[in-house]
Amino acid sequence: MKKLFGLLLAVALLSASWAGVAQADKIDFNKFTCNQFVELAEGNDAETLAMLYFWLDGFVSAKTGDLVLDTSSVESDLEELLKQCKAKKNARVLSVLGH
To answer: What confidence tens digit (pLDDT) does each residue in 13-64 have?
Structure first.
């Protein structure tokens, strides 16, 4: 899992397109569940997971006003979100982020 997270940032920064997201034209984050997030993480879909992480980070940044991206915390942030989501698989990811 650590290898996935290590590659996550590189994939996100180097990728010119988000072709991996073409599987779903739209993601309704109001309905996006922890179970779906865990499946993506465990399925090693690094490109889609990176895109989701940065969208979620932007969402949280807009709510908190914290506009600094700490690239050294990406791995630990994802691990914490995965931990919380595994404990609350039916919860919405946005509700888990709010706590």
So the answer is: 434 333 443 355 788 999 999 999 998 888 877 888 888 889 999 999 999 9
Handedness of CA 21, 22, 23, 25 (dihedral sign): positive
Tokens of 94: 């946005």
Q: 56-62 — which CB contacts under 8 Å span 24+ positions? A: 56/29, 56/81, 56/93, 56/94, 56/97, 59/29, 59/94, 59/97, 60/97
78 HSE (CA, 13 A, CB side):
27
Record the tokens describing residue 13, joined without a space: 């920064």
Strand segments, DSSP code E, in the chain are: none
Say how far apart CA 47 and CA 53 lie, in whole Å: 10
Taking the mean position of all CA atoms in its chain, how far away is CA 74?
9
